[in-house]
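Appendix B. Raw example, untouched.
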Amino acid sequence: MNVYIIGAGVSGLIAAFELERSGNTPIILESSDRVGGRIATDLHEGFLLDRGFQVLLTAYPEARRYLDYDALNLKFFTPGARIIHPGNSYTISDPMRNPSQLISMILSKVGSLSDKLKIRKLNLELSRKSIDEIFESPSLTTLAYLKEYGFSSKIINNFFKPFFSGIFLENELNTSSRMFQFVFKMFGEGHAAVPEKGMGEIANYLKNKLTHTEIRLNTPVLSIEGPKITLQNGEIIEAEKIIVTCRPDLVIDQLKGEFKPSRSVYNLYFSLERSFMIQPLIALVPDEKFLINNLVFMTDVSKYYSSSGKALLSVSVTKPVKNEGSLVDLIKIELEALSGISAEFFKHIKTYKIKEALPQVDDMKANLPFTNSKLNDHVFLAGDYMLNGSINAAMTSGRKAAEAVILSAQNPF
């Protein structure tokens, strides 16, 4: 069967893997010079820079299906987070995983004792719910869900808002409570981790699993019409089946205007002589006057992120930026206020403005019938925008699209 896959992101690589398993030899057309899509790691000035702060949640069912965690040499974050205010900081931790943190968690200023008991209660409730049950539950905004659950404004503003704003890439917690429950469950049942040599290793691992797939890099697609693929260089390709894993409105005229703009984020990297965090924790900045949403020393998680021995600091900004030209200087000033270390010691390495960081999905799902992947007899769709914005959803959609292609060839539906 003559199958072309548009896009070598996670969805495309998974689709190719499943097609290979069924005896096919797909061809991937990728517009850029690499595989991985939104997952990428650059080597720059002796540092490994992930394009946008990302983590792998080890409890993702699809990640467990397709990835070998030992082969990726995963390095783990300490469960919890550090809340940073100028001149003051405190930790929110999980005493069930680390009993030695029980007293400090009880005394933590992050919220009331009732809030902390509610976190434990929510963890237990979600551990008893399947992922399908979570995504079939009523959908509120995350903020409304947290308030309805009884959390105080203090813990919402100190922890939930900055933590989940960094995940959802929106600052009001308007994202569906389904997604909140799913992510909270994944954090509770596994760990946040990165491969020791950067998130791009996930894409490289998936690519290396392919043995009968041709990957054509630097091959942008102009349009798709029926079984015909037109490349930007004018080449026309006839395909029996096509799996589109990029945003389909970019290549299929009939879908133009059907998709909301993606969410964006700024990711800035700085080097410092040494970390001021001590342990591999995500630090949250709840003060709304600050641009910084979260920061983390990637070298606290994996020493391989730096070849010089210097610390590598990742800073994420989810708020609107009025003047990009002054962003680096503003962030340095904020880092000085938060750490007490003079701004001049933070050496700027690189800034990423990631416009297509996360899809906006209104009706979030955990799964979809393979028939939903089919656009017409020739074209099938995959991508996390079909379910929810996550690596897990990207893998699910790639698998489902491949299943739909295989079944359509055997028994047209």
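End of appendix B.
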